[in-house]
Structure formats: C-alpha cells, structure tokens
Amino acid sequence: MIKEVTDKLYSNDIYLNYLRFHPKWYMILERYPESFSEFEKEVKVNLKLTFNDKLNNFKKQVDFVSGLMKYLNNN
C-alpha cells in the first residue's frame, strides 16, 4: 500500500476498525490505491455516517424531545 493511503487509514480509527471487519479492502487498496474514495464512501454508508443519516438522527432526537415535552405538559 502506498504511504498516502496508509497515512489516511492510520489517521482515522473508524477506517481501521472497518478494515478489521472487512479485510477484502486490504487487497483492494493494496492493488488499487486510487479506490480509497470508494472505500470512504462504503464506510460512511455502512456505518451511517453520511449527512442524511446524521440529519435523520437529529430529526429523531427532536421528535423524541418534542413528544416528551408534550407528555410532560399534559400531566
């Protein structure tokens, strides 16, 4: 693996942890280091780290707090 890819991997614990559970990416990144952006996309999608996932989580939290406030105001 080229140094740039290994530096990116070791600078992010999430990437390293994902690699441990998906070792096929070791071979892919070794042979095709330019596929690192695909690796990043897959990690974000599978671990739900995309902007849409974060937005949905925030919406769920707001809905929960809103429901809790309504419940407390009714009692």
Keywords:
mainly alpha, about 80 residues, 5 helices, single chain
Structural overview:
The termini are far apart. With 75 residues, the protein is an all-alpha fold. 80% of the residues lie in helices and 0% in strands. The radius of gyration is 19 Å and the shape is rod-shaped. It is built from five helices and no strands.
**Largest pleated sheet:** none
The helix-and-strand class reads mainly alpha
Binned, the helix content reads over 70%
Q: Quick check: average pLDDT?
A: 93
Low-confidence stretches: none
Strand content: under 5%
| DSSP summary: helix tally | 5
The coarse overall form would be: rod-shaped
Rounded to an integer in angstroms, the radius of gyration calculated over CA atoms is 19 Å
Question: How many runs of DSSP E, i.e. beta strands?
Answer: 0
Order of helices and strands: HHHHH
Terminal Cα span = 62 Å
